[in-house]
Specification:
Elements: H1 10-23, H2 29-46, H3 55-72, E1 78-79, H4 95-106, H5 110-121, E2 127-128, E3 133-134, H6 138-147, H7 152-168
Antiparallel strand pairs: 1-3, 2-3
Helix pairs in contact: 1-2, 2-3, 5-7
Length: 169
């Protein structure tokens, strides 16, 4: 029997990650996929075909456990009911750092500036009012942009542009 390949299971892994994100919108899809990759490697290492010939079952439990660990760590959010819990950093950027950032922003395309605005302003569309938490994660912003009709290729291009600008700072 050949060794299981990650590519053969990626669709199932993505489906499980989306199922968990739909159940708890505070979870980050990319974090779950990363955990699933670790779970896949653990499953490959610990699988004994003589004891359990069905790799799918073994994989399901390993990936489920790794994703569960991500869910347990999912608490870095700001509750909307407690504004006093938000702390402003004492360190303000120097005038030079602020100027560099403004120059970097000026170099971005219109679409990239929209994404920067989403991150900095957290519009109501990125807030889950049922659980009253804010988390403008990359995956929630991607989902929001996709709902506005943005194509995945354009979203990737814009995030790449922003990352490049930030690296140059």
């Amino acid at each position: 029997m050949s060794e299981p390949q990650y590519e053969d299971y990626i669709n199932s892994i993505r489906a499980e990650a989306w199922r968990r994100v739909k159940r708890n919108p505070l979870l980050d899809f990319d974090d779950l996929i990363s955990a699933a990759s670790i779970g896949f490697e653990k499953a490959k290492q610990s699988w004994d075909p003589t004891r359990n010939p069905n790799f799918n079952n073994h994989l399901y439990w390993k990936i489920g456990h790794c994703m569960w660990e991500v869910e347990q760590k999912c608490h870095p959010y700001l509750p909307l009911d407690e504004p006093e819990s938000i702390q402003i950093a004492d360190d303000k950027p120097s005038p030079f750092e602020e100027t560099k950032f403004r120059v970097g922003l000026a170099s971005l395309s219109k679409e990239a500036l929209e994404v920067v605005y989403l991150v900095l302003e957290s519009p109501g569309e990125l807030v889950d009012w049922t659980i009253r938490w804010i988390r403008p994660s990359q995956s929630s912003i991607r989902t929001f942009l996709h709902s506005l009709g943005w194509k995945p290729k354009k979203i990737d291009q814009v995030f790449g542009e922003i990352k490049t600008m930030l690296k140059e700072l």
